[in-house]
Amino acid sequence: MSWNDYYRRRDVLNGALRQARRDPARRVSLTDVPGATEVFEDEGDLLLALQYKWNQSLTGRIGVALSELAAGVELDNVDAVSAAWHRTAREHGTLREVLDANAEEHAEALRPGREVELRMLALAAGLAEPGEQPEKIKRVGAAFLGLLCNTPEQPVTRHRTPMRQLRRLLAPAG
């Protein structure tokens, strides 16, 4: 893919999200997004690209949350991943709503991206181990995602460990 192709795809994805903001049902249609028919085969292809965009954002948030755990912030993996998912959903609300609204109609097209999300959630939260059966990991991820979708975001209480507090006090103010 050339840079021109990348920018065209990006612009179409952003156009699809702008279109979705105007549509209460959050349905996507290639005919409603300028340039979409030149870039994507069908709505399923467009939705899979949107799922990839979601997974990229979520992966970044989960990475930050897990690095904070490693740095001594006292949370467990489930709380950290939950907070990361809710923050991503809040920041990319339209994207999440589009994926949810089209999940049933385009389930087969979205399946590969959705499975990546489910595995990532289960493994990052520590609810499954990498050596477990892939189907089991997906089932655990699906159950966890169901809880995330149906549980309001909880405020995250982060406590600093004594060593982290000491490092903060000793660090030069900038």
Quick synopsis:
With about 170 residues, the protein is an all-alpha fold.
Write structural notes for this entry.
The chain is mainly alpha-helical and 174 residues long. It has a domain at 43-162. It is 70% helix and 0% strand. The protein is built from eight helices and no strands. The chain has helices spanning 3-22, 36-39, 43-70, 77-91, 93-102, 107-124, 134-150, 162-170. It starts with a helix and ends with a helix.
Please give a handful of descriptors for the protein shown.
about 170 residues; about 70% helix
Main sheet characteristics: none
Q: Estimate the helix proportion, in percent.
A: 55-70%
Total helices: the number is: 8
> What is the average of the pLDDT values?
88
List how many beta strands DSSP finds. Answer: 0
Uncertain runs are 160-167
Listing every helix as H and every strand as E from the N terminus to the C terminus, the arrangement reads HHHHHHHH
Helix and strand content put the structural class at: mainly alpha
- Strand coverage percent: under 5%
Shape: globular
Any idea what the radius of gyration is?
19 Å
Distance between the termini: 42 Å
